[in-house]
Amino acid sequence: MEVKFVVAVFVLVCAAKVVQTTHAECFIVIHLLEKEEECKLKKKTTNAVSSATAHNKTAGCAVEWDGVSCWPAALIGESVSVACPLPLLKPDSPTVLITRNCTLRGWSQPSLPYFTACYLEDGNEEEHTGDEQNYFATVKLIYTIGYGVSLASLFISILVFCIFRKLLCTRTYIHLNLFSTFILRGLAVFVKDAVLFADESMNHCTVSTVKCKSAVTFFQYCVLANFFWLLVEGLYLQTLLIFTFAQKKKLFWVYTVIGWGTPSITIIIWALLKSQLDNQGCWDDLDSALWWIIKTPILLSVFVNFVVFINISRIIIQKTKATNSNGTEKPPYKRLARSTLLLIPLFGVHYVVFALFPEHIGVGPRLYLELVLGSFQGFIVALLYCFLNAEVRYEVRKEIQKVMKGCWSQEENNAFNLATQDYVT
Fold this sequence. Notes:
Blueprint lengths: L1 H16 L6 H29 L7 E2 L2 E2 L4 E2 L2 E2 L3 E5 L13 E7 L2 E2 L6 H5 L6 H39 L6 H27 L13 H33 L5 H30 L14 H35 L4 H16 L2 H7 L7 H13 L1 H11 L2 H31 L5
Antiparallel strand pairs: 1-4, 2-3, 5-6, 6-7
Helix pairs in contact: 4-5, 4-11, 4-12, 5-6, 5-7, 5-12, 6-7, 6-8, 6-9, 8-9, 8-10
């Protein structure tokens, strides 16, 4: 009963906060759309009244929506003034009235352009906007290259493990699942960019299609799965270090549920609540209260992974001291721990730092760390777990030597046949 009560309270709180969770830029667009609908209704009402009293109809200007303000009906020679819409005003800026005259030809031009009256232009505004556009274009180019390199290296790594089946074990199965999440994450980024940003003329504040919502949902699922399989890597390494005779096959199925099941349940709950409580736009609003349904599991996975990292470091230090004192060497511990110890602090620490601040703070550094460096994560994983792995290099080297030996033997046989002609048919 208490659990149901907590869930009900959480849903009510989310519903209460949904109204305040619109993008700052989209809030202006939505505000203007609402005012436009009000103006159309006012115009329709005015026309209906005018039709009912046609015999008393006088010349003048009808109700008009100019894209920003709704101008009421006026008589010829009458002047009407409206104030700037509040969402367009800069903080602490004085209220400025915009005036239009009703003439024989209709409404005159505004006395002041909206941009001049409502938004005070800085001298460096255009230059600043240009710099931002260049920055975002550069970031997109770099992370596109990064995800491309990561996808290629991850596909090669999976192919290597599939060809050399001697390498397959519980540990490598976990690696393959981690590779898969990085591949899905990279593909999800390309799909999301293609759906949401391919058409530059598309209004992201008003578009709300099943296609774009599906792309964002798929992207969020891939991100969740990626974080949880990184957590699985840390948990599995800790299990190997603590429990020497762990039942690895049973553990693998538990880890599979954690890595794929938890993100699936989370994303289903999030999608259902979004469709019922905040079914606006393409579901890419990170300021929404419902975003915490996804963000909380990610933060928990990162926190647990960091604790695991500290614990593994402590175990490694203890075992290293024991090894040095006994004069013996235990290479499995060092070999198994080295790659994951590099991964755990590398994937997640920066996310904890930025998670302490709202999404709109530190946008530049956040984009650089999460998109630019994050796009190369798959390549780093493939490098550590496949290309630099001693077992993989040994199997590849052995196969190459085997192939080379077969080629040399065939060439020697061909040379013998050519010289003696004994076995030529």
